[in-house]
Amino acid sequence: MALIECRNLTHVYLKGTPLEAVALQDVTLSVEAGEFVGIIGPTGSGKSTLIQHFNALLRPTGGALRVSGIDLANPRADVKTLRQQVGLVFQYPEHQLFEETVYDDVAYGPRNLRLNEDEVGERVVESLALVGVDPNRFGRRSPFSLSGGEMRRVAIAGVLAMRPRVLVLDEPAAGLDPKGKEEILGQIRALHQAQGLTVLLVTHSMDEAAQLVRRLVVLARGRVVMDGPVREIFRRAQDLAALGLGIPAIAELMLRLRGSGLQVSPDTLTVDEARAAIREALRWN
Protein backbone atom coordinates (compact mmCIF):
# COMPACT_ATOMS: atom_id res chain seq x y z
CA MET A 1 0.00 0.00 0.00
CA ALA A 2 1.25 3.51 -0.86
CA LEU A 3 2.25 5.76 2.03
CA ILE A 4 0.07 8.57 0.62
CA GLU A 5 -2.96 7.70 -1.51
CA CYS A 6 -5.33 10.32 -2.99
CA ARG A 7 -8.33 9.24 -5.05
CA ASN A 8 -10.38 12.01 -6.67
CA LEU A 9 -9.40 14.32 -3.82
CA THR A 10 -11.38 17.56 -3.92
CA HIS A 11 -11.21 20.61 -1.68
CA VAL A 12 -13.63 23.52 -1.83
CA TYR A 13 -13.03 26.57 0.34
CA LEU A 14 -16.12 28.17 1.92
CA LYS A 15 -18.33 25.51 0.39
CA GLY A 16 -21.99 26.48 0.12
CA THR A 17 -21.30 30.21 0.44
CA PRO A 18 -21.17 32.97 -2.20
CA LEU A 19 -17.35 32.88 -1.80
CA GLU A 20 -17.05 29.19 -2.64
CA ALA A 21 -13.79 28.38 -4.46
CA VAL A 22 -12.63 25.02 -5.79
CA ALA A 23 -8.92 24.65 -4.93
CA LEU A 24 -8.46 20.95 -5.76
CA GLN A 25 -10.54 18.84 -8.11
CA ASP A 26 -10.32 15.07 -8.62
CA VAL A 27 -6.66 14.78 -7.64
CA THR A 28 -5.50 11.17 -7.90
CA LEU A 29 -1.97 10.61 -6.69
CA SER A 30 0.06 8.04 -4.76
CA VAL A 31 3.46 8.31 -3.09
CA GLU A 32 5.48 5.27 -2.04
CA ALA A 33 7.70 5.11 1.04
CA GLY A 34 11.17 6.51 0.36
CA GLU A 35 10.24 8.56 -2.71
CA PHE A 36 11.49 12.12 -3.29
CA VAL A 37 8.68 13.89 -5.15
CA GLY A 38 8.61 17.47 -6.40
CA ILE A 39 5.33 19.37 -6.71
CA ILE A 40 5.30 22.29 -9.13
CA GLY A 41 2.68 24.47 -10.75
CA PRO A 42 1.75 28.09 -11.40
CA THR A 43 0.56 30.33 -8.59
CA GLY A 44 -2.95 29.33 -7.52
CA SER A 45 -2.63 25.78 -8.86
CA GLY A 46 -3.41 24.17 -5.50
CA LYS A 47 0.07 23.12 -4.32
CA SER A 48 -0.18 24.47 -0.78
CA THR A 49 -3.78 23.31 -0.42
CA LEU A 50 -2.74 19.79 -1.44
CA ILE A 51 0.14 19.42 1.00
CA GLN A 52 -1.92 20.76 3.93
CA HIS A 53 -4.14 17.70 3.53
CA PHE A 54 -1.23 15.37 4.21
CA ASN A 55 -1.14 16.16 7.93
CA ALA A 56 -4.82 17.06 8.26
CA LEU A 57 -4.51 20.84 8.47
CA LEU A 58 -7.18 20.63 5.78
CA ARG A 59 -9.69 17.81 5.27
CA PRO A 60 -11.09 16.60 1.94
CA THR A 61 -14.47 17.93 0.90
CA GLY A 62 -14.69 15.12 -1.66
CA GLY A 63 -12.85 11.97 -2.68
CA ALA A 64 -10.59 9.78 -0.57
CA LEU A 65 -7.25 10.31 1.16
CA ARG A 66 -5.19 7.86 3.20
CA VAL A 67 -1.86 8.81 4.73
CA SER A 68 0.19 6.18 6.52
CA GLY A 69 -2.91 4.01 6.65
CA ILE A 70 -5.07 6.71 8.26
CA ASP A 71 -8.32 7.55 6.46
CA LEU A 72 -8.54 11.33 6.47
CA ALA A 73 -12.04 11.37 5.03
CA ASN A 74 -13.12 9.90 8.37
CA PRO A 75 -13.94 12.71 10.85
CA ARG A 76 -12.67 10.46 13.66
CA ALA A 77 -9.25 9.94 12.06
CA ASP A 78 -6.32 9.79 14.50
CA VAL A 79 -4.89 13.20 13.64
CA LYS A 80 -2.44 13.24 16.57
CA THR A 81 -0.69 10.10 15.34
CA LEU A 82 -0.73 11.39 11.77
CA ARG A 83 1.01 14.64 12.71
CA GLN A 84 3.79 12.69 14.39
CA GLN A 85 4.35 10.82 11.14
CA VAL A 86 4.04 13.70 8.66
CA GLY A 87 6.21 16.75 9.26
CA LEU A 88 5.13 19.88 7.39
CA VAL A 89 7.59 22.74 6.95
CA PHE A 90 6.01 25.94 5.66
CA GLN A 91 7.71 28.77 3.80
CA TYR A 92 9.87 30.83 6.18
CA PRO A 93 9.67 28.25 9.01
CA GLU A 94 12.01 30.42 11.08
CA HIS A 95 8.96 32.62 11.76
CA GLN A 96 7.67 29.73 13.90
CA LEU A 97 10.69 29.84 16.26
CA PHE A 98 9.71 31.20 19.66
CA GLU A 99 11.67 29.61 22.52
CA GLU A 100 14.58 31.26 24.32
CA THR A 101 17.16 28.73 23.13
CA VAL A 102 17.75 26.56 20.07
CA TYR A 103 17.64 23.47 22.30
CA ASP A 104 14.23 24.35 23.75
CA ASP A 105 12.78 25.15 20.36
CA VAL A 106 13.76 21.78 18.91
CA ALA A 107 12.65 20.07 22.14
CA TYR A 108 9.16 21.59 22.05
CA GLY A 109 7.54 18.85 19.95
CA PRO A 110 9.08 15.86 21.77
CA ARG A 111 8.17 17.38 25.14
CA ASN A 112 4.56 17.62 23.97
CA LEU A 113 4.73 13.87 23.36
CA ARG A 114 5.41 13.52 27.12
CA LEU A 115 8.78 11.88 26.50
CA ASN A 116 11.27 11.76 29.34
CA GLU A 117 13.98 14.41 29.26
CA ASP A 118 16.73 11.94 28.32
CA GLU A 119 14.87 10.95 25.16
CA VAL A 120 14.03 14.58 24.43
CA GLY A 121 17.73 15.43 24.65
CA GLU A 122 18.62 12.52 22.40
CA ARG A 123 16.16 13.70 19.76
CA VAL A 124 17.35 17.31 19.96
CA VAL A 125 21.00 16.36 19.48
CA GLU A 126 20.17 13.92 16.68
CA SER A 127 17.92 16.36 14.80
CA LEU A 128 20.32 19.29 15.00
CA ALA A 129 23.16 17.07 13.78
CA LEU A 130 21.01 15.90 10.85
CA VAL A 131 20.62 19.49 9.60
CA GLY A 132 24.27 20.36 10.16
CA VAL A 133 23.87 22.44 13.32
CA ASP A 134 26.32 21.65 16.13
CA PRO A 135 24.16 21.14 19.27
CA ASN A 136 27.08 21.94 21.58
CA ARG A 137 27.85 25.20 19.84
CA PHE A 138 24.31 26.39 19.13
CA GLY A 139 22.07 24.61 21.65
CA ARG A 140 22.10 27.34 24.31
CA ARG A 141 22.03 30.25 21.90
CA SER A 142 18.91 32.23 21.11
CA PRO A 143 17.48 31.12 17.75
CA PHE A 144 17.07 34.81 16.92
CA SER A 145 20.84 35.34 17.04
CA LEU A 146 21.40 32.97 14.10
CA SER A 147 21.70 33.66 10.40
CA GLY A 148 18.67 33.14 8.17
CA GLY A 149 19.95 29.80 6.89
CA GLU A 150 20.80 28.60 10.41
CA MET A 151 17.37 29.59 11.70
CA ARG A 152 15.72 27.66 8.89
CA ARG A 153 17.77 24.55 9.65
CA VAL A 154 16.83 24.79 13.33
CA ALA A 155 13.15 25.05 12.37
CA ILE A 156 13.48 21.91 10.22
CA ALA A 157 15.27 20.17 13.10
CA GLY A 158 12.20 20.86 15.25
CA VAL A 159 10.10 18.92 12.76
CA LEU A 160 12.65 16.10 12.48
CA ALA A 161 12.69 15.74 16.27
CA MET A 162 9.21 14.24 15.96
CA ARG A 163 10.81 11.49 13.82
CA PRO A 164 8.31 11.70 10.97
CA ARG A 165 8.05 9.15 8.17
CA VAL A 166 7.20 11.91 5.68
CA LEU A 167 8.77 15.36 5.36
CA VAL A 168 6.76 17.92 3.37
CA LEU A 169 8.58 21.14 2.48
CA ASP A 170 6.95 24.24 1.00
CA GLU A 171 9.60 26.36 -0.75
CA PRO A 172 12.34 25.59 1.81
CA ALA A 173 14.96 27.82 0.13
CA ALA A 174 12.69 30.85 -0.37
CA GLY A 175 14.32 34.15 0.53
CA LEU A 176 17.79 32.75 1.25
CA ASP A 177 20.99 34.02 -0.34
CA PRO A 178 22.79 31.66 -2.76
CA LYS A 179 25.01 30.19 -0.04
CA GLY A 180 22.03 29.64 2.26
CA LYS A 181 20.06 28.01 -0.55
CA GLU A 182 22.92 25.68 -1.39
CA GLU A 183 23.28 24.67 2.27
CA ILE A 184 19.59 24.03 2.93
CA LEU A 185 19.07 22.08 -0.30
CA GLY A 186 22.19 20.03 0.42
CA GLN A 187 20.86 19.18 3.88
CA ILE A 188 17.51 18.10 2.44
CA ARG A 189 19.26 15.84 -0.09
CA ALA A 190 21.42 14.35 2.67
CA LEU A 191 18.38 13.74 4.89
CA HIS A 192 16.64 11.82 2.15
CA GLN A 193 19.71 9.74 1.40
CA ALA A 194 20.76 9.06 4.99
CA GLN A 195 17.36 8.60 6.64
CA GLY A 196 15.32 7.15 3.78
CA LEU A 197 12.65 9.75 4.52
CA THR A 198 9.79 10.17 2.11
CA VAL A 199 10.12 13.78 0.94
CA LEU A 200 7.64 16.00 -0.89
CA LEU A 201 9.05 19.30 -2.07
CA VAL A 202 6.94 22.20 -3.30
CA THR A 203 9.07 24.57 -5.33
CA HIS A 204 8.85 27.33 -7.92
CA SER A 205 12.46 26.69 -8.93
CA MET A 206 12.91 24.27 -11.80
CA ASP A 207 16.64 24.17 -11.02
CA GLU A 208 15.91 23.03 -7.45
CA ALA A 209 13.61 20.34 -8.77
CA ALA A 210 16.24 19.14 -11.24
CA GLN A 211 18.89 18.94 -8.51
CA LEU A 212 16.83 17.10 -5.93
CA VAL A 213 13.81 15.10 -7.00
CA ARG A 214 13.31 11.88 -8.95
CA ARG A 215 9.65 12.47 -9.82
CA LEU A 216 7.61 15.57 -10.60
CA VAL A 217 3.91 16.18 -10.11
CA VAL A 218 2.59 19.22 -12.00
CA LEU A 219 -0.61 20.91 -10.82
CA ALA A 220 -2.71 23.40 -12.76
CA ARG A 221 -6.15 24.77 -11.84
CA GLY A 222 -6.39 22.31 -8.97
CA ARG A 223 -5.73 19.20 -11.06
CA VAL A 224 -2.74 16.94 -11.69
CA VAL A 225 -1.81 17.57 -15.32
CA MET A 226 1.55 15.76 -15.42
CA ASP A 227 3.19 13.12 -13.22
CA GLY A 228 6.36 11.25 -14.04
CA PRO A 229 10.17 11.01 -13.82
CA VAL A 230 11.80 14.42 -13.63
CA ARG A 231 13.67 14.07 -16.92
CA GLU A 232 10.52 13.00 -18.71
CA ILE A 233 8.57 16.01 -17.42
CA PHE A 234 11.29 18.49 -18.37
CA ARG A 235 11.34 17.11 -21.93
CA ARG A 236 7.84 18.63 -22.26
CA ALA A 237 9.12 22.20 -22.40
CA GLN A 238 6.29 23.43 -24.62
CA ASP A 239 3.58 21.94 -22.37
CA LEU A 240 5.24 23.49 -19.32
CA ALA A 241 5.53 26.85 -21.07
CA ALA A 242 1.79 26.76 -21.81
CA LEU A 243 1.24 26.57 -18.04
CA GLY A 244 3.58 29.49 -17.41
CA LEU A 245 6.36 27.21 -16.16
CA GLY A 246 9.94 26.97 -17.33
CA ILE A 247 12.59 24.28 -17.42
CA PRO A 248 15.98 24.19 -15.63
CA ALA A 249 18.65 26.53 -16.97
CA ILE A 250 20.84 23.61 -18.08
CA ALA A 251 17.95 22.02 -19.98
CA GLU A 252 17.23 25.36 -21.65
CA LEU A 253 20.88 25.62 -22.70
CA MET A 254 20.78 22.11 -24.17
CA LEU A 255 17.68 22.96 -26.19
CA ARG A 256 19.38 26.05 -27.63
CA LEU A 257 22.48 24.06 -28.52
CA ARG A 258 20.35 21.44 -30.25
CA GLY A 259 18.59 24.23 -32.12
CA SER A 260 21.97 25.44 -33.36
CA GLY A 261 22.78 21.96 -34.67
CA LEU A 262 24.85 20.48 -31.82
CA GLN A 263 23.51 17.01 -31.06
CA VAL A 264 23.47 17.07 -27.26
CA SER A 265 21.11 15.00 -25.13
CA PRO A 266 17.80 16.72 -24.27
CA ASP A 267 17.77 14.89 -20.90
CA THR A 268 20.72 16.83 -19.47
CA LEU A 269 19.91 18.50 -16.14
CA THR A 270 23.20 19.09 -14.28
CA VAL A 271 26.40 21.01 -15.00
CA ASP A 272 28.47 17.81 -14.97
CA GLU A 273 26.08 16.13 -17.39
CA ALA A 274 26.12 19.19 -19.64
CA ARG A 275 29.91 19.31 -19.70
CA ALA A 276 30.10 15.63 -20.68
CA ALA A 277 27.32 15.96 -23.28
CA ILE A 278 28.92 18.99 -24.97
CA ARG A 279 32.34 17.32 -25.08
CA GLU A 280 30.79 14.20 -26.61
CA ALA A 281 28.81 16.19 -29.19
CA LEU A 282 31.88 18.27 -30.19
CA ARG A 283 33.95 15.14 -30.56
CA TRP A 284 31.51 13.73 -33.10
CA ASN A 285 30.58 17.01 -34.75
From TrEMBL:
The UniProt record lists the ABC transporter domain at 4-246
Q: Which SMART domains does the UniProt entry name for this protein?
A: AAA
Question: InterPro entries given for it?
Answer: AAA+_ATPase (IPR003593), ABC_transporter-like_ATP-bd (IPR003439), ABC_transporter-like_CS (IPR017871), ABC_transpr_CbiO/EcfA_su (IPR015856), ECF_ABC_transporter_ATP-bd (IPR050095), EcfA2 (IPR030946), P-loop_NTPase (IPR027417)
List locations, semicolon-separated. Cell membrane
A Pfam family this chain is assigned to: ABC_tran
| The keyword Nucleotide-binding appears for this protein | yes
The UniProt record lists the EC number as: 7.-.-.-
- Give the range the annotation lists for the signal sequence: none
Q: What does this protein do?
A: ATP-binding (A) component of a common energy-coupling factor (ECF) ABC-transporter complex.
Quote the subunit structure annotation: Forms a stable energy-coupling factor (ECF) transporter complex composed of 2 membrane-embedded substrate-binding proteins (S component), 2 ATP-binding proteins (A component) and 2 transmembrane proteins (T component).
Q: What is this protein called?
A: Energy-coupling factor transporter ATP-binding protein EcfA2
